[in-house]
Amino acid sequence: MLLTSNNILEINMSGKGTKFFESLLGPKLLEGDKEVDIKSVVDGKDYVAIYHSAHWCPPCRRFTPAFIKAYEEIQKKGGKSLATVFVTCDKSEGQFKEYFKDMPWHAVPFSAGEYKGFGGKSAKHLKVNGIPSLSIFDGEGKLIESQGVGVVSENGADFLKMLDPEEKKKAESAAMESLFAAMDLNGDGYIEKSEIEKCFGLIGAPPHITQQEVQTLLTRDTDGDGKLNKKEFCVATYSVAGRSPKWLAEAVGERLKEAKKKEEAKKEFASLKGMDFFKALLGDKLLGKPDKELSTETALDGKEYVGVYLSAHWCPPCKRFTPKLAEAFAMIESKDAKKLAMVFVTCDRDEGSFKGYWGSMPWNAVPFSAKDYTGFNSKAGMFLGVEGIPTLAIFDKNGKLLTDSGVEKVLIRKY
User: pTM of the full predicted structure?
Assistant: First the structure.
């Protein structure tokens, strides 16, 4: 979520229904490129959602397609009715129009200065200090959900069900049971302090947050045995840093699966050495310049060291680092052409991005089509336990990992 430094003021709004929404959003809204009365948009609706967002905001652009999908499914299925109004936080009308043209709902006109942006009436009333922000009201103007982004992200088109107190209670109860099952790592029917610590470590929580949540959860230990049974753990819903129990259960489950895959990958490579190791890590075929296929054996034969570089065009730190790595590679190669082979393992999402990015590199690459050998879940990614990019690992010719901190070594020119 992106924060703004604007002062946030609360405005007292009077009236109900259309009158309330008009005080927040103005008398006119955009439907495509034409203006309509707000009454025709919100009158009679079960729910009205106000969506503060902007084209310049990456989290907004990631969330908007998911919200569009959920909204269109709701409209198609029928049932409870939903009106949605986009309130732009864009800085120019061009950005607003470019962003709004793909949205299937209404918008506050860009020209309606007092109703748009962080200083607009709805933003002040809702105390919007970060975007994307999705607030959902009932038809009379009662605020039901201020954290709509999270609710939509987790529930998709079913997010309207979460606005019903009974449905929400049932969903939270089921989520707590799932979280208990995920955190009961040894399956003995209890969650101990060590299991809480391991689960929070798996999802990347800082140590101080982990210890704080250990203390919070263990306050549910009513029988004082130092661990939580299912009844104690599920006595009430639970969240941390705005993350719901459903999200936590899924996150812990996914990280456990990833950890298992990484262990399996380590075992797979344990008995392999030399070229057999590199073929298992990178595949039998690589791409050489200019865009020609060659065997992995040919590409790596006679090299003293092999660098494996996981990177992507969409990653700003990668694009800043790649020229530095190319400079280091050229310096090493100029002194001894047999010293180092480098292989690019793409984490890009499409072949066009892969080809464009690889074009700036002077070394070989794993083909984009070799799905077992590209991405975070590639053989190399699993073996190295890659969680972030850029990652540069250096192996000797026998396949022994010398360092997986190659990025840092290049940056301090230790090569």
Answer: 0.58
